[in-house]
Structures are given as C-alpha cells and as structure tokens.
Automatic annotation (TrEMBL):
Organism: Capsicum baccatum
Presence of keyword Transcription: yes
Database matches in PROSITE patterns: ALOG (PS51697)
Localisation per UniProt entry: Nucleus
Phylogenetic placement of the source organism: Eukaryota, Viridiplantae, Streptophyta, Embryophyta, Tracheophyta
Annotated segments matching region Disordered: 161-199
Official protein name in the record: Protein G1-like6
Occurrences of domain ALOG (ranges): 43-170
Alphabetical UniProt keywords: Developmental protein, DNA-binding, Nucleus, Transcription, Transcription regulation
Family recorded in the similarity comment: Belongs to the plant homeotic and developmental regulators ALOG protein family.
Family annotation (InterPro entries): ALOG (IPR040222), ALOG_dom (IPR006936)
Transmembrane domains' residue ranges: none
C-alpha cells in the first residue's frame, strides 16, 4: 500500500547582486511500504531531483520569471553558462602558456568552469526529469539541437585547452575463444595394427 509524505528542500541561489535568495520547495513524494525510507532512492534519482529543483529555482529567479512551459533550448544554454561561475575546472585560454597541457607546472589566471562531463551528465538528468514531470519529449528543451551543439563545443574546447581526450574509450575485445582440443585417436586394441582398422 502506498503512503504519501512531504519533503522540504532548502535551496539557496546567488543573484547577480550577490545577495542570497533562499526558498523552501515542498515535494509530495509517494512511497511504498517496501521503499518508505529515503535511503532506498538511488544516488542518481536523488541527484536528478536536486538538479530539477535547482533548475526550477533558476527559472523562478529569472528576470522576468520564466514558466517551464515557455522554457527553450536558449534558456537551458543560459542556465549552463550561469553554472560556470561555480565551476572547478581550469580551462586555459589559447594565449596561456599552459594551453593544451594536462598537468600545468604552475598556476595561471585562466578561468574556472564547469567540466564538460559534469554538464553532459547534468543535461541528461534534466532531460529525463523534464519528461518525468509531464513534459513531452518533442518539446524537451534539454534535448534541443542548440544544447547538443553547445555541449559538443564545450567538449572540444576543453579537450584542446586541457590537453585531455574525451574520446569514448573503446571496449577491449576479448580474445577469441580457444578452439576445442583435437580429439585423440583411440589406440587400437593390443595385438592388432592400425592398418586393420583402416586408420
């Protein structure tokens, strides 16, 4: 039998004038008797919920406020660029002497940004959350062509700037199975030669 419970999440965001905006979001969650504890949710589901709430808060704080139904790929790009200010990945500019070096020997003033892998995973989670929250796949702003192109551009730029390859790792092929051992010829009964058996 399913039971309902309320969960409150506090999200703080920083607006352009560096003032902190705090708000509580109330979520009505449905849980079965077998999965009534919050620890039963996977890390992925928890992260997806946090990401969805953060994006919802971003839309609410947007000037002018933006309804999810009016959200487009351009708004998703704006959100991804906004997140760069919280990034922890050093992305060297082409004029930096460490451009293309995976392990620079000294600090430099290049900006910190969100890593491509983090943005790619975030977009995937938000794309799934959009549809789980009633959005139609054909209107999903996280699946927009502009978002895919932006992610590809960020990947290529960071790959060159950091000297890191983002190519998918090819799975190592397993060696082919060994052929079955050859069958041994039965030795003829004693006292008879092999010729008598036609071997």
């Amino acid at each position: 039998m399913a039971s309902n419970h309320h969960e409150k999440i506090n999200i703080e965001t920083v607006s352009n004038n560096n003032s902190t905006i705090s708000s509580n979001i109330e979520i009505l969650a449905c849980s079965s008797a077998a999965a009534s504890s919050s620890s039963s949710s996977s890390r992925y589901e928890n992260q997806k919920r946090r990401d969805w709430n953060t994006f919802g808060q971003y839309l609410k704080n947007h000037r002018p406020p933006l309804a999810l139904s009016r959200c487009s790929g351009a708004h998703v790009l704006e959100f991804l660029r906004y997140l760069d200010q919280f990034g922890k990945t050093k992305v060297h500019t082409p004029m930096c002497p460490f451009y293309g070096h995976p392990n620079p020997p000294a600090p430099c003033p290049c900006p910190l940004k969100q890593a491509w892998g983090s943005l790619d995973a975030l977009v995937g989670r938000l794309r799934a959350a959009f549809e789980e929250n009633g959005g139609k796949p054909e209107t999903n702003p996280f699946g927009a062509r502009a978002v895919r192109l932006y992610l590809r551009e960020v990947r290529d730029l960071q790959s060159k700037a950091r000297g890191v390859s983002y190519e998918k790792k090819k799975k190592r092929k397993l060696p082919p199975p060994l052929p079955p051992p050859p069958q041994q010829l039965l030795s003829p009964p004693s006292g008879k030669s092999a010729l008598q058996f036609g071997l």
